[in-house]
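for the writeup, i need someone to sanity check this before i put it in the appendix. the sequnce is what the collaborator sent (i think, or maybe the updated version? ugh). structure was predicted straight from it, no edits. if anything looks off just tell me and ill rerun, i have time this weekend
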Amino acid sequence: MRARIQELEARLKQQPARATAASAQSDQQPPSESQEFLSTSPVATQTSAEQRSVESKPAKAEPFAFADWTWLNGTPRTKTPAFDSKFFTPEIRADIDYIYDFNHPKDDTIGGSSEVFRTNEVHVTQLGVGGDFHYDNVRARLMTQFGLYSVTTPRNDASPARGQWDLANAYRYVSEAYGGYHFNTLHGINVDAGIFMSYIGLFSYYNFDNWAYQPSYVSSNTPWFFNGVRVQIFPTEHLKIEPWFVNGWQSYGRFNNRPGIGGQILWRPNSWLSILG
């Protein structure tokens, strides 16, 4: 019996030695053909090189983000939004004024202006509620216009009188309403369709953005908005080329049998110069 126990103990001592030898032998074995193919395959080498190239390639600069443009007339002076999220950036605008006209019109009506409408009274010119929607490359914007703008802006548009359907009432409470898509080409390309601001006369449709409450005579006679399609092309971070296909000159519909075309070129070479054409 004692001899049997000694024999079993000897076998147990031999097992760890065999396992160590087998492990050493497996470490010395050359890699298999499949492993060698994966490590030296041109496809694998190219893939890793492309990954390194993508990681090392710097992202293109965002257009006009190289400077602070809040000093520019027609540009809002808010630098950062009060609230923002992944999908929506809200915005609320309130324009309440008191105007006094030294001509003292008997019915308090002021004519010839696109921003000032009555005298010696307190009025809500515009109350806008909306914001910007953004999800991946999809983009959209909505801004309402409650107050005097909802009456005066449709009043100055004669296109609703052409044809049926009441365009004036359909659009009177909307100052901006468009949807579009952003293409990651050049420094960005935006394609939007709907009602959007024109910013031709360097004054903004929203008085908060302007240096003076009453826009210049030239700005008051340029369109504040368009209803159509625009394409914003940014070849560089300093240049924007923006063609338009619109219904008309600040009109919800068409005045005649043809739509309108136009465009804008904006060049900002540095932080103190902005050229708009």
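Residues 2-27 form the longest helix (26 residues). Residues 21-28, 31-41 have pLDDT under 50 and may be disordered.
thx in advance!!
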